[in-house]
Amino acid sequence: MQVNSVSSAVNTPAKAGGTVAANAMDSAQFMQILMAQLTHQNPLEPMDNNEMMSQFSQLNSLQELRDIHTAMDKVSVSNQTAYLASLIGKTVKVSRPDGKFLEGVVDGVLAGKDTPQLRIGTEIVDLSDVLEIKGE
What pairing do the DSSP bridges indicate for beta strands 91-95 and 117-120? Predict the structure, then answer.
């Protein structure tokens, strides 16, 4: 009986966004489990059609939610980029790690994978350190 391969698929954590999610299951693992259920079911008491359709519906819903999550991530990045671009030319007041404040006009922005940053003259500061934003 090949139940071991199914249990290893269940115990294998899936990566989501670079981190390991212990309860996450991708569609391939779901299909492995479903096929194992169908293969090893009791022929005298087969799986209920309604139950199988429910499982397929859950898989479809999971895939749709993942697609929506991906689309929302793209929209979020786009909004953040637009916000950063809107700060160019504005005067900002920033808290420095040494406890001092820096005030100056934003010359440019850096929207990397990590925290977004602003360029004020020769200084690069994190957006999270901005205390005040003044008009042009």
Answer: unpaired
SS (H, E, C) the chain: CCHHHHHHHHHCCEEECCEEECCCCCHHHHHHHHHHHHHCCCCCCCCCHHHHHHHHHHHHHHHHHHHHHHHHHHHHHHHHHHHHHHCCCCEEEEECCCCCEEEEECCEEECCCCCCEEEECCEEEEHHHEEEEECC
Report the C-alpha gap between 98 and 25 in whole angstroms: 45
Q: In a 10 Å sphere around its CB, with 0-12 CB exposed, 13-18 middle and 19+ buried, how is residue 95 labelled?
A: middle
Name every residue whose Cβ is closer than 8 Å to that of residue 2 and which is 6 or more positions away in sequence.
Answer: 36
φ, ψ of residue 60 in degrees (nearest 5): -60, -45
Q: Global pTM?
A: 0.52
Summarize pLDDT for 18-32 with one digit per residue, the tens.
Answer: 444 545 566 677 778
